[in-house]
Amino acid sequence: MAVQVRVQNFQSIEDQTITIDGLTTITGSNNSGKTAVMRAIRGVFTNPPAGPLVRIGAAHLRVTLTFGDGSEIVWEKGWEKPGQSGKTINRYTINGKTIEGVGRGVPPEVEVFGVREIPAGSDRLWPQVADQFDGNLFLVNKPGSMIAEALSDVDRVGKLTSALKASEKDRRAVSAELKVRRADVVSHQTEVARFDGLDTVSTQIRSLSVARDALRDAESRVVEVRALRDRWVKAKAAVESLSGFDPDVIPNPAALDRLRKGVQKVQGLQSRWETAHNAVSALKGFDPDTGIPDPDEARQAKTRWERAHDYATRLTTARAKAGRYKGLDPDLLDSLSLAGGVGSAEERATKVLGAYKAISALWDQRGKLVRDVDNLVSESEAVDKSQADAEAEVVRLLGDRGVCPTCNTVHKPVGKELDL
User: Fold this and answer.
1) CA-to-CA distance for 131 and 125, rounded, in angstroms?
2) Which SS3 state, helix, strand or coil, does residue 210 take?
3) pTM (predicted TM-score)
């Protein structure tokens, strides 16, 4: 990766820019500034004291390293005014971010670039920026133990370089993601631009809301006005119905109360008249001259009528009961000594009643016996069916054996003979 180096006010160099791309060698005569360039580059990564480094007549030094991937480090150190006067300056600017008052050493943001010295035994080496050689190549003039230790650190530096490459890869991925997000921002800005003027729509919506509330208020008022109009129409009709009425003619409340009571009395008399009129209509054609019967005779007639009615009811009941015995053998009466008209009528009636009760009891007993016989027949049929079913089940269980193994009873299917 190429690195552009700009050195300003550093020892003998006022302002000089060089580009390092791969293995770069600086040559020149003595006191031409070769070592100053090396020290300026190394000073960025070590932050040494500014006293012997600031160019005479200048206030502070500045070294700028611009890498090929766009990263940039600016190191400034010294004072605000020449002659080492004024406020001291010790700051770094890394990719546009300024770090003031660094103090001794370099900030962590500089260390991530991986440019640092490597301890090798009791000495310290710089694999990236070497000092002026005194005729010997890098590490060749060093003992074997120092070379091994330096190379082991070089391995660690290699790992660090790999880590830096991975970090660079991540940075590029983040840059690509940033480009996508910037494109998204532009797209969203375009989308937002579609809603320009939305504030006016909100104002219109608020205006419409106010108009809607006003319409609702007007609607409620219209409803009230319509209700008042209906009441006015009814009142007008009532006034027209009282047309010609003199409002000065107002009856006395006491007179109204007497009139009300008189009306109620008339209504009661009318109801009594209607009742009497109906009673008279029911007696229409009655001749009062025929005379009114004596109350005692009327009561006696009523008693005779009630007795005759009772006899008629009893006769109807007796006839209904006698119909049950239609076709009964008359010899039965002879066996009960009821024939021949023996005794008085009351005795004969008593005997007939006794015979009736005996016959009724016999009839009831006969009906009970008939029911018992019917029940016994039904039970017999049920028993026969159960026996047949049980016999069939036994035959099914015995199968071809035909003989019960417990009681030695022979069972055979219906319609088949059992061969023993």
Assistant:
1) 9
2) helix
3) 0.36
Q: Is 245 helix (H, G, I), strand (E, B) or coil?
A: coil
Reported as a pLDDT band with limits 50, 70 and 90, residue 392 is confident
Distance CA(118)–CA(151), nearest Å, equals 9
Same-domain pairing of 356 and 398: yes
Residue with the two structure tokens 């290699």 = 158
Q: Are strands 60-67 and 85-94 parallel, antiparallel or unpaired?
A: unpaired
Domain count, the chain: 3
118 vs 204: CA distance, rounded Å? 74
Which domain-ending residue is among 78, 113, 148?
Answer: 113
In tens, the pLDDT along 212-249 reads 999 999 999 999 999 999 999 998 888 887 777 666 66
Measured distance between the N- and C-terminal CA atoms of the chain, rounded to whole angstroms: 123
Domain range spanning residue 183? 117-195
Beta-strand relationship, 3-10 and 13-20: antiparallel
- Rounded Cα distance between 70 and 94, Å, is 11
